[in-house]
Design brief:
Chain B: Its EC number is 2.1.2.10. The complex is a heterodimer. By secondary structure, chain A is of the alpha+beta class. Helices cover 19% and strands 39% of the residues of chain A. The termini of chain A are far apart. Chain B contains ten helices and 20 strands. The chains are: A alpha+beta, B alpha+beta.
């Protein structure tokens, strides 16, 4: 069973078992504009909640994407190195950023669901 | 958000809102940053067809009177008396240390009439500076309330003609007043052929309606204006040039004619002559980061021996160049094109090569 969470920082986290897939929301990609570079973490890297896990760069600026919980990176979306624009066209699908094994899934408790997130961005 | 709300709105704000612009603050103004097309397509559209920019945040000053030539010769390092009517040039207001207070375009409109276009962020200071200088001259300074538009790109002339604005006989860096309260010059800040048009708001609304109904014309926001000017190697005041830089290190000495450098009596003349004599320790150059990762303003540059070589003052991605582009200041012995440096980005060193400016060739229409 999968469950999707959303953060105040406009990230989505799709959880299956103890593996979370993380990306930025469609709203976030729209705000950032055309993305030209994605700085991905190394597979095996350990992340603490709140760490900068990924930096996405638009034509104009660089923006941090934070780890929503503690865990270890188990995969990154290498396609983005050649095609960062995938985040613009498919933010919540093929434009995912990284997968991580959650140390404590309970850290995600209290994050928003899609309805609450959509209400937040209005 | 509060900054956007307290920022001054452009006279055509409602038109940009209707066009779906995303706004952001710049120099005290709420400016259209991007339109629904997005920065990448907006940028490329300007290089391929014609892009319409609202640059009404910039300030137009009309200078007129029998002392106009003498006032401008005092205020700026060039000889305005040698300009032919309609001729325009890039120049500066310098301070006593030859630091660049602002970069300006001055157009001679008649024997005793000039137009000065100043940057938004410096407009108030420029006006005060000019008025203080004008006390000694018989010249009137008139800040103009205008909408200021730029139409840039290879189709700009055709589109402007279709919209009813004549451009015949107007070549790059020339301008004229085709009717009362209108100012049209062949100039811009994208590296493309194009025009800048200052006009009253009512006329502007009519012109914009005609231009935006033209298939070749799209609204272009400030984000693409920045990537276009950076590819074209053009400086943004407050970032690439400032009161902390002289025209010598900014590699803009070409804008100061040789005789004026030697004998001109403009503000900052002594300091500029001293700076020329001493030579600059650093020089403004283009920088091409290796790979895809942009190198942004503020990044420190290192030489291959690990010593600090300079700093990046503007950086981003060049949609037409197809790679990241940047400019900055480096020690003069490292300023030659091809010199390998490294920029520090988030703790890692990105290889960067000194690169000739512009990154994309200028396509101005000269007479």
């Amino acid at each position: 069973m999968t469950k999707t969470y959303f953060t105040d920082d406009h990230e989505w986290i799709r959880v299956e078992g103890d593996i979370a897939t993380v990306g930025i929301t469609d709203y976030a990609q729209e705000q950032l504009g055309d993305l030209v570079f994605v700085d991905l973490p190394e597979v095996g890297a350990t992340l603490a909640k709140g760490d900068t896990a990924v930096v996405v760069e638009s034509v104009k600026a660089a923006s941090d994407v934070y780890a929503p919980a503690d865990g270890e990176v188990t995969g990154v979306n290498d396609t983005l190195s050649a095609e960062p624009g995938l985040i613009n066209t498919a933010a919540t699908g093929d434009g995912w950023l990284w997968k991580m094994k959650l140390a404590d899934a309970g850290q995600l408790d209290g994050l928003m669901d899609e309805t609450a997130y959509n209400a937040m961005i209005g | 958000m509060t900054t956007t709300e307290t920022a001054q709105k452009l006279p055509l704000h409602d038109i940009h809102e209707q066009a779906g612009a995303r706004f952001g603050p710049f120099a005290g103004w709420s400016m259209p940053i991007t339109y629904p097309l997005g920065v990448m397509k907006e940028h490329l559209h300007v290089r391929e067809k014609a892009g319409l920019f609202d640059i009404s945040h910039m300030k137009l000053f009309a200078i007129s009177g029998p002392g106009a030539v003498a006032l401008i010769a005092r205020a700026c390092p060039f000889e305005p008396g040698e300009m032919t009517p309609s001729q325009a040039r890039l120049t500066f207001f310098l301070d006593d240390k030859a630091g660049i207070r602002d970069d300006l375009i001055v157009t001679r409109l008649g024997d005793t009439r000039f137009m000065i276009v100043a940057n938004a962020g410096n407009a108030a200071a420029d006006e005060a500076h000019l008025r203080a200088l004008a006390a000694d001259f018989d010249a009137e300074i008139e800040p103009l309330e205008r909408v200021f538009l730029a139409l840039q790109g290879p189709q700009a002339e055709a589109a402007l003609n279709r919209a009813g604005v004549a451009t015949d006989g107007l070549y790059f860096m020339h301008g004229r007043e085709p009717k009362p309260d209108w100012f049209v010059s062949r100039s811009g800040y994208t590296g493309e052929d194009g025009f800048e048009i200052g006009l009253p708001e009512t006329d502007a609304r009519a012109l914009v309606a005609r231009l935006t109904s033209d298939d070749d014309v799209e609204w272009i926001g400030l984000a693409a204006r920045d990537s276009l000017r950076l590819e074209a190697g053009l400086c943004l005041h407050g970032q690439d040039i400032s009161a902390e830089t002289t025209p010598v290190e900014a590699a803009l000495l070409w804008a100061v004619p040789k005789p004026v450098r030697e004998t001109g009596d403009f503000v900052g003349a002594e300091a500029l002559r001293a700076a020329i004599m001493a030579g600059a320790a650093q020089k403004r150059v283009g920088l091409k980061p290796e790979g895809r990762q942009p190198v942004r303003a503020g990044a420190t540059l290192y030489a291959q021996d690990g010593s600090v070589a300079g700093r990046v003052t503007s950086g981003g991605f060049g949609p037409s160049a197809g790679h990241p582009v940047a400019m900055g200041y480096v020690n003069v012995d490292l300023a030659r094109a091809g010199t390998q440096l490294a920029a520090e980005v988030r703790g890692t060193r990105v290889p960067v090569a000194v690169h000739a400016l512009p990154f994309t060739p200028h396509r101005y229409l000269r007479g």
